[in-house]
Design brief:
Layout lengths: L8 E10 L2 E11 L4 E5 L6 H8 L7 E6 L2 E2 L4 H6 L1 E4 L11 H11 L4 H14 L15 H12 L6 E5 L7 H18 L2 E6 L10 E6 L2 E7 H7 L5 H9 L9
Parallel strand pairs: 3-8, 3-9, 6-7, 7-8
Antiparallel strand pairs: 1-2, 1-4, 4-5, 9-10
Helix pairs in contact: 3-4, 3-5, 4-5, 5-6
The chain binds adenosine-5'-diphosphate (ADP) and magnesium ion.
Length: about 250
């Protein structure tokens, strides 16, 4: 990765408060293009608050957020065009077919129905769900629903995908499958991904990691490098040393 490549996502000195409660405190980090970057933090660390700022659900008043160099406050159309998002809460309409869920979303992005169906079919094929297009969303497993949400988030061909705790509620096999699916999108499509989780075992050695704790970024870097730097046994051990979070508070 060349140092001059424009980051997929650049967060600079971002803070956010809910009344007197400081949820994010001078947060800065980057997601390199074509990387799998994990935003790792316990419940309450500020992960979803950061998502709300990047997606403009909340106005980012303190600090700067750029998506491929486009500032989300000054060039929102340009910035959001390059962004796909999968929120933590499930957002499929269960009574619609899988394809209808995709087509309606594409219409919001200004795609005509022919183009929407073409892109929907190709996105479902990539997700391994080509044969489920006409099934009601209700008929899918939790992991399959997540993959449809990812397919939907990619319909307008963004270059950056944010996922907020996408594996919550999935069983072990579905979690592993979903992780593998998104890692493959990074490899084959050179998508920049920001994957939010509190689950240490979702981090791989070569991932970029951002450790967020109580609203502050305490460490960033390649997972294996962080482990080495702290002389830790693994990334879970490094996380405990960096955050001071003891094992009991540690989510399994
Ligand atoms: P995470 O997603 O990492 O679990 P959040 O961003 O949801 O963390 O929360 C960060 C902090 O902000 C927590 O202390 C949480 O209680 C607080 N918080 C989140 N949303 C709100 C809100 N709408 N109003 C007040 N406080 C909030
Ligand atoms: Mg959250």
């Amino acid at each position: 990765m060349s140092k001059t490549a424009t980051p997929a996502l650049a967060i600079r000195d971002v803070s956010h408060s809910y009344g007197a409660r400081r949820a994010l405190d001078h947060v800065s980090f980057e997601v390199p293009p074509g990387s799998f970057t994990v935003l790792l933090g316990l419940n309450g660390a500020g992960k979803s608050t950061l998502f709300s700022l990047v997606t403009r659900l909340y106005a980012a008043r303190e600090g700067e957020i750029d998506i491929f160099g486009a500032n989300i406050m000054r060039q929102p159309g340009e910035a959001l065009r390059r962004l796909g998002v999968v929120f933590q809460a499930r957002t499929l309409d269960l009574e619609l077919s899988v394809m209808q869920n995709l087509v309606y979303h594409a219409a919001l992005h200004g795609l005509g129905s022919f183009e929407a169906r073409r892109r929907g079919a190709s996105a479902l094929a990539r997700a391994g769900l080509a044969d489920r297009a006409n099934d009601k969303a209700r008929a899918l497993s939790g992991g399959q629903m997540r993959r449809v949400e990812i397919a939907r988030a990619l319909l307008h061909a963004p270059r950056l995908l944010l996922l907020d705790e996408p594996t919550v509620g999935l069983d072990i096999k579905a979690r592993a499958d979903l992780l593998a699916h998104v890692r493959q999108l990074v490899d084959t499509e050179k998508l920049g991904v920001l994957w939010t989780t509190h689950l240490i075992d979702e981090v791989a050695d070569n991932d970029q990691v951002v450790i967020l704790h109580r609203g502050r970024v305490l460490e960033t870097g390649r997972a294996a490098d962080i482990v080495g730097h702290y002389g830790a046994a693994d990334i879970g051990d490094a996380f405990s040393r960096i955050t001071g979070a003891d094992e009991e508070k540690f989510p399994a």
